[in-house]
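Job type: complex structure
Entries:
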Amino acid sequence: MASEGKRGRLSLPGTSGNGDEGIIARVSNTISQSPIVYQGKRAASDAAFVTKKLLKSTGRAAWIAGTTLLILVVPLIIEMDREQQMNELELQQASLLGTPPVAPQK
Amino acid sequence: MAATVPPPTHVAKENEIKIEEKIDYLNLPCPIPYEEIHREALMSLKPELFEGMRFDFTKGLNQKFSLSHSMFMGPMEVPSQSTETIKIPTSHYEFGANFLDPKLMLFGRILTDGRLNARVKCDLTDNLTLKANAQLTSEPHMSHGMGNFDYKGKDYRAQFQLGNGALFGANYIQSVTPHLSLGGEVFWAGQHRKSGIGFAGRYNSDKMVATGQVASTGMVALSYVQKVSEKVSLASDFMYNYMSRDVTTSFGYDYILRQCRLRGKIDSNGCTAAFLEERLNMGLNFILSAEIDHRKKDYKFGFGLTVGE
């Protein structure tokens, strides 16, 4: 009896403590194990993965497009601009001197 | 129709007169050689891209004779089985001698690694031309020679080819209308026991050139060049090989400006290339070449200088 009481007394704080933790743990467990949280977590990680992939592929696409444009378009623009400048210069010279220009000035 | 509806503009009138003009089928222009039917497309789409540095110098000794020196430094691709390209840095010097005369042209090139290249173009009569090409190397079985007899008629051209390794070929191209020419070829390579036949057609007007070629080797090549203006032309081509089942399409532009010539192209293999020839001064050209292959991660950039001519 005594031992039972002792055990009970001894066990009481333990059980009460367990009960306290149990409440928090139960709450946290119910939260953490609830399907909503689980699904939310999965969705978040999926979203992060997809965004990462998307960013990576857009970055790669942008890199390819950028380098391609740099190779194909930039020299073209520069050269056309130069040509136009030269034409303007020639026109100016012609109007100033009143004679047809002999050689294109550099 | 022309009588009932008066043409609204002068241009339309001119066009109608052009259409009504009778085509004289006995007086057609001479077509361009069979092997050069893709000339315009190749000019725009296949510039001489290189990687590294090159320097070319040509000096005329007199009106007919000139010497050329050229130097090249840069990585050279080595053919290998793996998909990755292996590059070995190389440098070589090339010495050349040219003899140019309206009736006779001789070209000789010798490289420091022992390759010798010789070309002859000789007008035997007004219509018959002999072209010969020989390449000698220090490696066995890599030397080859080739001779062509070209006959130029009033509205046709015929060519007979002879090469080492028992290679025989003949082709013929005929103008059908003032714009359209059709041709065919046969060849027989005795060493490899192969023979083939091919057909080609070419339509050219002032504004555009369209060509098509098929051969029994499985090759189908179509090309189209549109001349947007005197300075600008756009080109596209399509290559299909029935045997290896690979298809390539490319699209390119060709700008010829007063001080430079710029060629750019992009193809369906993800390969982008540009080639710029800038005229710095009379007889001094600066060359920039760029080629990017995104798929193979192969990037080639080169620059060069051409002095003389």
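Summary: Confidence is low (pLDDT under 50) at residues 1-9 of chain B. Helices of chain B lie at 10-20, 39-45.
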